[in-house]
Design a protein that fits this description.
The chain has 117 residues and is an alpha+beta fold. Helices cover 15% and strands 26% of the residues.
Length: 117
């Protein structure tokens, strides 16, 4: 599956997934759709440098939680997302949108706090 969602929006926020508990989980600067999905989670999009940090973090988490996806960068600059159900074929290919933002982690339980402008 390719993520080709139009991410032309601009609410800046810090996003995080609570795994280890408050104050231990890193947060990442993102652009967030200013509405939450049905689950209450937000849908973030990241610049390339921040997406690289998210990929590295996701891979660290997957070492201790095998249900968490593994991410890799392709030569074309896409993010390949592998799940526990599909470790040899990506379940998702995340391409940058027209603004160069990566909608990485759609469906992950992202939470957000607003960034002061």
């Amino acid at each position: 599956m390719k993520s080709t969602q139009d991410t032309s929006f601009g609410v800046r926020a810090n996003v995080y997934i609570e795994i280890d508990g408050a104050d231990k989980d890193p947060s990442f600067e993102a652009y967030v759709i200013d509405r939450q999905v049905d689950s209450g989670d937000v849908q973030p999009c990241f610049t390339r440098p921040v997406a690289e940090q998210v990929v590295a973090w996701a891979n660290q988490v997957s070492e201790v939680n095998t249900d968490f996806p593994i991410c890799e960068w392709s030569q074309e600059g896409y993010i390949l997302v592998f799940t526990s159900d599909s470790r040899f074929r990506p379940s998702e290919v995340v391409q940058p949108d027209k603004d160069g933002l990566y909608a990485l982690g759609l469906g992950w339980p992202w939470q957000s706090t607003e960034v002061e402008q």
